[in-house]
Amino acid sequence: MNIYNNPILKRKGFKIIIIVAISLLTLVAVLFTYYKACLDPYRETINQPSLTLDLSQTLTRNQALEDLSYVKEQIEKYHPAYLDHSGRYDKVEEQYQKEIASLSDNTTVVELWKMAGRIAARLQDGHTGVSVYHSTEDYFISDFRQLKDYGNPIAINGEPIDNVYQVFLSQFSYELEAYAKFMFEHVAIANKNYLSFCGVDTSEGVVFTFASDQEKIDYHYEFVPIDQVIGYEEEEDNGWVSYDIEKERNLAVFTLKQCNYNKEYSSTLQSFFNEVNENKIDNLVIDLRDNPGGNSLVANSFIEYLDIDTYQTWDSAVRFGWYLMKNTDIICKNQKKVPTFKGKIFVLTNTRTYSSAMDFAMLIKDNQLGVIVGEPSGNLPDSYGDILGFQLPNSKIFLNVSYKKWYRIDKTKAAEPLTPDYEVASKDALDKVYDLIK
């Protein structure tokens, strides 16, 4: 009798296969459940955010303590600093203990915002911080003309501006002070919420003191929506991605105001390089000034039109629960597209060149594909990034937490800012390129 045709053995073999299959499926289900519950970076992020409570609303001590504990716990669960032995998390823990020790029986939402800000700021991570959103629109001082005529005030509600700035620095998340100073001078001092964040009483408007010809001038402002501000001039909108071919200068300028990787970007990029090729342009400018970042794939897509075979990208460490996955020495094979460009490349940057826009500039500079002209970028190449969004349970303050750490491509310049090869004021950057290519 052929044992392979034995029906009893066949049934036993089939049962074994079923048992093995069920066991494998069960194992996969258990591992997937464990991943989603313990390792998935997005496991507790918000899907439907609520409005932040009014800044003047009061929380009990227990509510405030729960919110501050939530800030610390989310950083513990998701931020690479908790695992990378940098010592930054120790500073977070230290600040957290100070804040909870100072809690009173009642805490306003704005005071809690400051406390949470001080805790997050100890990471020195420009991507991890707190913010509020409790209205359909922000409110600003009612007249911008004095800021244009006199510059920044020397005092706000009688408080010296340097004191207000120091409060801001202690609570705002940043890596380079030049960026924090820009945000204070161009955003915070004109914005009602941020003035409150800096400890300024905004309940009856605000008084700015300006210096003019050896005398002091006071102006009182109410707070209004941006479209009601006297002296507000909306910037001309040429779109977030555009380009100009300056044939007489043998130059093409590609302007990117946001790092959006989508069909519009890809289509504009293709048209740009087609015209560069048709007009035999030898000099190319990538204008990343005032670009706050977004998707870093815009840089990789751009490089596909350059005549190089490979390039190096940045190392990273990605947090998955208790595990920090490290990726090092990554060489990318360039998937070249036609037409390819072989000329000179200049990248324009300023203090507002941030996050993925800064990475774009670093990719060009550190691979020696071109040079940078303008001002240093707003954050460091060696930095944390890729944010997860949370919301504090009681105040509904928003919390962003990085779950990746990025490292500069040129390791000889680790921890250094992305410094331009030709450092000039932002407004003069393109003129400097004109001089360089003459």
What layout of secondary structure does this protein have?
Blueprint: H1 7-39, E1 58-60, H2 61-78, H3 88-101, E2 106-108, H4 109-121, E3 129-131, E4 139-141, H5 145-150, E5 155-156, E6 159-160, H6 161-171, H7 177-186, H8 192-197, E7 206-212, E8 215-221, E9 223-225, E10 241-246, E11 251-256, H9 263-278, E12 283-287, H10 297-303, E13 310-312, E14 316-320, E15 323-327, E16 331-333, E17 344-349, H11 356-366, E18 371-374, E19 383-391, E20 398-406, E21 422-423, H12 429-437
Parallel strand pairs: 11-12, 12-17, 17-18, 18-21
Antiparallel strand pairs: 1-2, 3-20, 4-9, 5-6, 5-7, 7-8, 10-11, 13-16, 14-15, 14-20, 19-20
Helix pairs in contact: 2-3, 2-4, 3-4
Quick gist of this model?
With 438 residues, the chain is α+β, with helices and mostly antiparallel strands. 35% of the residues lie in helices and 22% in strands. It folds into two domains: 44-234 and 394-403, no CATH class; 241-381 and 417-437, Alpha-Beta Complex (2-enoyl-CoA Hydratase, Chain A, domain 1), CATH 3.90.226.
Could you please describe the fold and organization of this structure?
It is a single chain. With 438 residues, the protein is an alpha+beta fold. The protein folds into 2 domains: 201 residues, no CATH class; 162 residues, Alpha-Beta Complex (2-enoyl-CoA Hydratase, Chain A, domain 1). It is built from 12 helices and 21 strands. It has a 6-stranded mixed sheet, sandwiched between helices. Strand 17, helix 11 and strand 18 form a beta-alpha-beta unit. Helix 2 runs antiparallel to helix 3, helix 2 packs parallel to helix 4 and helix 3 packs antiparallel against helix 4. The chain is flat, with a radius of gyration of 27 Å.
